[in-house]
Amino acid sequence: MSVRDSAVGLGTTGYAKKAKELIKVIGDIRALGGQGDLDLPRIAVIGNQSAGKSSLIEAISGITVPRASGTCTRCPMECRLQQSDELWRCQVYLRFDYDTLNRPKLEVHEEKFGPMLHDPAALEIMLRRAQLAILNPTVDAKRFEDLDIDSLDDEYPPLGSSEQLNFSSNVVCVDVWGPYLPNLSFVDLPGIISNVADEKDSGNIDAVKNMVKKHIEGNCLILLTITMRDDIDNQSAAWLAKQADPDGLRTIGVLTKPDTLQDGEEKGWVDVLEGRKHPLKLGYYITKQPAPKDLLEKITHAEARAKERDFFRDHPTWSRLPKSRMGTEMLGVSLSKLLSQLIDRTLPKLREQVREQSKATDGALARLPAKITNLPAVEINALIGRFYEEMRSYVEGAQGYETLLHGCLEPYSTFRYEIRATAPVFDLSDPPKPADLPYGSGDATDESSIGGSSRKTTLQELRMIIDRHLTKELPGNVPFSAKLSCMLNCLKEWSALADACFDSVFFMAEDHCVQIARTHFDRFTYSSLNTIIRDTVAKELLRAKNEIDEKLRWVIKLESTPFTQNAHYFTSCKERYLVEYKAKRPTSKLIISYLENALVSLRAAGSSIRSIEEIKKYEEDPYEREISVAAEVRAYFQVAYKRIIDLVPRIINIDFISELHIRLRAALEKELGVGTEAGIKLAAKLLEEEPDVLNKREELEAKQKRLREIQLRLNGSLV
């Protein structure tokens, strides 16, 4: 079969200048590899199995597709025809859109399969090999390029494949150039199947349908192949086309095998061709392809077309219908025109898609680790420096970096309120008489009842604590150990409260450090640099935490021995609480009456005393000693409280927060050996670009260049 004979003859039709330019634009974009980036206008050929698709494709394209037993289409075959002034040539590609688990791949590539072909007779065997490579994804596709097909055993997968798929959504692509070819693109999809021989293969039915559904979306003319040996309503392909194109705007019906009809069966198909049944806006065509006998005789393409023309010219029914709908040649002319019109409608969308993809590609490149232009050691030092500067901005609360210091305020305030809540509280009412007390209640009282907000300490309990510490003291004296015990019990929760305060600040500071480290080093996830930074920051933070924990324990320990040189404040607090506590002591009605009478007499005598409260100062209280101790304990708590609520936050601020950026930089420089020979070697290793990243960058840069060239071609077109 000669190359000239293989042509459909579309190159001789009188296309308008605009139509030629439209197809040339898309052809140029394909030549740039744009079919992998854009939803280019195309034609998809669908039909039920054995509907005559393969014969139709051969008639349109002039190529020979596999016809041997068991070699029917089991994966999409994308044919891309381009008119060329050079001699006929063909290149087969494989495009793996899905991985071995049938999951969509994030990155899709077309890879060459076999050498460039210059003999059309060599294409059929290469297509069979390519399909086997698609159906056996666990085997390196290169191994199929020169595979001896005839030596294969149908019982076993080829080349040690773990499993041969029945169907695949991955694509065999065929680029064909020649002087007599139209600029056309179409996809031959596996024939729709309704049943399988083996029940375990029943999933193939839906798999093929889903594959077809996906391919007939978008800028696609649906070339629906319908065998006239069966009613349209019984053909699943027609139903799928109706789903994808419910209004029939982009579906072209092709009726095949008219020579199989019996006399009188033509009438129903005439109704279809003339639009009375199953109407389509683009209408129907009827074709007749070579019979099996003709194929055995290897008639030429030109002879096949001549026989087709004779069949329609001489047939009593078809000869009366419009010749523009009869035969493959008329179909080919129409397809070229329809594709041109689709391209014309699609070009504005393609321009927008190119702009969007260019923007996305630029973004993907920007998200890759930046190219290292400095010497690796210099770059490492610069990275640490930028980390240090941002960390210092947070530590110093620079404008726009206030969150760290501002976040410390709440834990400090909470610490102050919680320390304040541990102040001793005394019940100044008269205790019940001994007869009213439950048996053994006095024995249960100890110093642990002093301090905290859980309960009040009664004067009776305070008396029992004092009495327990009495030894050789003179009457009226209170042992210091009793006061010390009461004071220390007020402070027993302070260590935990200080730890809680620091923990809140630490975790917040840790979050800031981690986030800043991510900002500057996360782009190096492909190397161990990111891990080294993360681990070093974590270790140094833990080291700092342990140091501050130790300092806080030391500060709390200082409070285990009451001490103050702030005598004035302590004395004034004690006097204030003594007056407050005495004023709250209950007084009987009889004493009140007595005091009122005494106050009248004192005023008459010219005394300066003006109130009962002043008289009560001179009254002897049976719990005078206990009230004095309570006032002293509360006064010392006030002194210690004022001291600790400043000291703990200051230690955290000065010894932890303010030193963070300095100690982290020092730790990173030490770990990475900045300024040493070992550090120079380590930097070179850490910043060496990962092969996958390098490949990704090259791929994106190539796509970026390709999209720019496509954009120039689209913007520079005359249409």
Quaternary structure state of the chains depicted: single chain
Could you list the spans in which at least 5 consecutive residues all have pLDDT below 50? Answer: 1-14, 435-445
The total count of strands amounts to 11
| Percent of residues in β-strands | 5-15%
Structural class: alpha/beta
In the CATH classification, which architecture of the largest domain applies? Answer: 3-Layer(aba) Sandwich
Q: State the strand order across the main sheet.
A: 4-3-5-2-6-1-7-8-9
Largest sheet composition: 9 strands, mixed
CATH C-level name of the largest domain: Alpha Beta
CATH superfamily of the largest domain: P-loop containing nucleotide triphosphate hydrolases
Rg from C-alpha positions?
47 Å
The percent of residues in helical segments reads 40-55%
Quickly count the helices. 23
Average pLDDT number: 84
Give the CA-CA distance, first to last residue: 37 Å
The total tally of domains equals 2
